[in-house]
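Sharing a chain and its predicted structure for anyone who wants a worked example. Both blocks are below, sequence first, tokens second.
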Amino acid sequence: MNPRSICGPASPPARVVRIRAFTLGLCALMSLNALGFNSSLQPEEVHEAYSLGQTSNHEELADFLNQYEHDFKAPADNSIAYVSSVEFQTPYDQIVLRSLRTTQYTNFQAQEDYQANPDLVIVRVIVALKSGYVGPAPPADSFKVVVSQAKPIEPRKVDSTVLCNPWYATETPTFSDCMTYMREILLKFDASQFGPGRATVKITLPDGKTTETKYDLDRLK
């Protein structure tokens, strides 16, 4: 009589157990790398990002930032509005930017800031009106931004702020030379909303024209 019929299924051979364990470990590793970029930063990675923002090696810093910020020139056609820049800010990039732009910023502050929002991803779009435009300022909802990977990704929050309005310059004190209307649109996401591969940012302007740019998330930190 087959002992399995009495005692139940036999334990799998040790080799099968090892294969299963290896497979489970591989799956766990793949899940950690499901994102194109790393949103679970270790303290040494936060320090690395902080140090990059403090570096005097301007070429190294520029090479890094150019991966995250895509700049555009004003078009030569009769468009009244255009996209000035698009930024895809990963948690790592946000530390670099904060370290670069904040006076007397410390590594301790960088660690605290990251822990406060470890999964935050920001897509920042700057739109502008061409110099010489004399009509009314377009309403905020006439600028539409869609971020997608195969399908649109709904942001957790959207903020839209006028950075410069030459018709009401006193309302935009952050610009000492406010000559051209500029608006900042911030789309905030959770890192878990993104997967590996490319992400597309598409901006539709008030006149219906569109600007599109892509990010290879597998190349970002």
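Comments welcome. Strands lie at 69-71, 81-89, 120-129, 144-149, 151-152, 157-164, 182-190, 198-204, 210-216.
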